[in-house]
Amino acid sequence: MTDVVANGGVMSGILRQCARVPGRIAIVVGDRSLTYRELDSASEALARQLAARGVRPGQVVLIHQRQSVETVVGMIAALRLGAAWCVIEPGHPVVQLRALLGDIDCGAIVFGSTDPKTSPESVRDLARRAGGRVPALHDLDADHPPVAEPADLPEDVLAGIAAYVITTSGSTGVPKAVVASRANVANMVDGRDYDYDDGDLVTFSAFRLTWDGSLLKTLWALCTGGTSVLPDARELMDAEAVAALARTWQSTHLVATPSFYRLLLPHLTPLRERLRLVTLAGEALPGTLVEQHRATLPGVPLSNEYGPTETTVSCLAHPVRDVPASIAPIGRPLGASTAHVLDAKLVEVPYGTVGDLYVGGPQISEGYASRPAATAARFVADPFAARPGARMYHTGDLARVDAHGDIEFCGRFDGQVKVRGARVERHAVEAVLESHPAIHQAVVLATADEHGETALTAFWVPAAAATVLPTPRDLIAHCAERLVAQAVPDRFLALGALPLAPSSKVDEAALRRLLPSGGGGVA
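The line above is the sequence of Non-ribosomal peptide synthetase; the predicted structure tokens follow.
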């Protein structure tokens, strides 16, 4: 156990390692690395530069750049300043960025001018197009004069102050900004009880830093003196390159989504004797992938972790020992987290009965920035907690407790599905498609591809006035401008009309029968 809660939080934990093992490699992103000494120096310098530009504790530092070592330096610098970080990659839809900046108190946008995608002109234009107050701009690649009167960085920051802001998938076009406090993050790190040896810990996170799954192993490693490795922007979508990076650094702990792990696995055989744990998170873990893991990396422990963004990365875990018939359980609460499967009256349902999954404990985030109604709707009073005022989060996931006491995921109640780690509301994707002038009606279904992974198929009916029908490439471009990548359908099928069931609702079963493979459904 790292015990960062009792020792000042994550920032204090990282600084202790900077003093304890200054020459050890702390962070690797792609082909670049920083020792703990270098991470300490770079993050302190940036924190002081941001303070000189007027960034105050409690504000948000927007890190707008493609994934690199500088991204991590920006995150740590924000923490040192008493601010929160929010990582946004170039290409983020402007509509969504405008909504984000409207919800948060952004003190500065940090970017790198040597990247054509984040040139000073493009960032200024982005800030203007986002509307409202334009925050300070800080170019990481420019030569900045030393701060004449360096402001003192806060030594103690209240645990309730925000550590980071991360957006939900934004499939509706207006993402919500989830605010995680320093106490949330500290409790998340303390909940990790992974086995490791000091001086021989190398975690590998096959994730984008825009997603909170990247923090699952990264912050834990930095608080224990380990080395945290992530792919850079060029490698992120190349499974062979990502696996090569994991092999180069002889990773001991690896985390990925099941979808991407399926692509990584054939390249990981050389790590068979090195890996101490593989953690999969972000979407359902199918039994077929468990079988492939056991065949390729026999003896390497496999863990399935679960946690909505609103519960700070992950809060439940299941050590996968047996091959599940369909998908692996999501397990039991980690650390001080709690989990309950409840009925509509917030009463626990009997074992084996499907109910709504609620998660409680100190990892429950502060809620949605500037959206009190949305926060109140999903963050409710926890009747099971001893502490007055405690809350639990209504995940929107259906679940049941099996005979072994493990929680099983049973799908979503609100039309949302998980696609490559992101929550996507299919009805919102339909609305985007129907905004195309050539489309009259659209239905989006979650189906299973040849590997059993979740994919989206869009069925659409042309508008009566349409003279030229859009191609799949046209529709992909239309969706990509308005949705996150995971919400863009994988297939598009044009129909003369949508089939209706006797209830006058769209007959989804009939639509699935139109798919070439029979269209396996996904809960």
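Note on the example: The chain is about 25% helix and 25% strand. Residues 36-52 form the longest helix (17 residues).
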